[in-house]
Amino acid sequence: MEVIVVESAEELGRIVADAIQHMLAHQPRALLGLATGSSPLPIYDELVRRFERGELSLASAGACLLDEYLGLDADHEQLYRTFIRRVFVDRIDLDLQRLLGPDVRRADPELACREYEEQIVAAGGVDLQILGIGSDGHIGFNEPTSSLASRTRVKTLTAATRGDNARFFGGDLEQVPKHALTQGIGTILEARHLVLVAQGSGKAASVAAAVEGPLTAMVPASALQLHAHATVVIDEAAASQLTLVEYYKQTYRDKPDWQGV
Ligand code: GLP
Predict the structure, then answer these.
(1) pTM assigned to the model
(2) Cα separations (Å) of 170 from 73, 132, 135, 166?
(3) pLDDT at position 40 over 90
């Protein structure tokens, strides 16, 4: 996997936006996998700036959600569909009809999961999936011990994840849902390009475990080691526990111009 250490959130946003812009230039109908959390926000802001300058368009593209809370009211501002619309989709020219996500209004969530898998396949599969990482090593809401072959399904959130995400619910842990629907690790691995982003020292241990540790269900993000095209874009703080950090920096510095992210 390629590890890129950046100096700022802006640089993180630029590098990932470059990869997305390049993809859209060649495949205007690409399906872009979107992640929530704070880490991907610089990417969305940079894509919006480029859209406003007329440098890129998602008018023919599609987008899909990585995961979604279960049990929130349809008008709750922390529903991931709502969050993603607010921070990205409503600020660009993507057709809302082509924003895919699991239908959490379904009485049977497992059915919603199966239908969502079918929707992704029908849309041609995910071309580039943006991922964050939990402090416990999760991707999407695939918590530790998730099968590395898992498909989209309902997961129970760990106390660590609910604690991390309480900040989005006014700091009130009781308001954080206990369950979520998430693309499985097997599902995520089917995307053609995985781009994991992380910032801050709170992610240093999970990033090191994912990139340099053993492949293990205890660190779901370590599944990226199985993917032929995985890129990890992190700041210095998130990179601080990596053993080979100088090697990653040298590799990126010496990268031939013709080789994109
Ligand atoms: C949530 C999401 C994950 C995301 C994680 C990290 O748990 N389900 O997809 O990676 O948050 O969030 P942040 O980037 O805010 O640290």
Answers:
(1) 0.97
(2) 16, 21, 20, 7
(3) yes
